[in-house]
Amino acid sequence: MPTKQEILDLHFMDARCKLIDLAAFLDRVERHPGEADYRLEALRKAIPILLSGEPGRARAVLESLSDPSTDPIPSATIQGAFGAPNPPA
Q: Of 61, 68, 69, 31, which is closest to residue 44 (Cα–Cα)?
C-alpha cells in the first residue's frame, strides 16, 4: 500500500492542475453577463462536499451532480446529459 507521501508525489500536480482549471472556469463564468443556471449552483453545492474531509467524497460529489429520479421520461429531448440535476421548474 502506498504512503500518503507517495500518493502526493505521484498525483499532486494533476490535482493542482484540476483545481486551477476549476477556479479558472468559475472566474470565466462569473465575469460574463447574463444569468447562470442550475449547473453552476450544483458545482457550488459540491465544493463544500469536496472540502468536508469526510470519507467517500468522490461518491458524494458524483451523487450531488447526478439526477436522483428513477421514473423514466416519455422521450428524450436531447442526445446528451447536462451533468447536474435540473430542479423542477
A: 61
Q: Is the pLDDT of residue 40 over 80?
A: yes
Confidence of residue 5 (pLDDT cuts 50, 70, 90): very high
Q: How many residues does the chain have?
A: 89
41 secondary structure, DSSP code? H
**First CA to last CA across the chain, in angstroms?**
48
Residue with cell 494533476: 14
CB within 8 Å of 16: residues ≥ 6 apart: none
To the nearest 10 degrees (0 to 180), the angle between helices 57-64 and 38-51 is 170
Rg, the chain, Cα only: 17
Q: Give the burial class of 85: count Cβ atoms within 10 A of its Cβ; 0-12 exposed, 13-18 middle, 19 or more buried.
A: middle
Closest CA to 25 of 14, 36, 11: 36
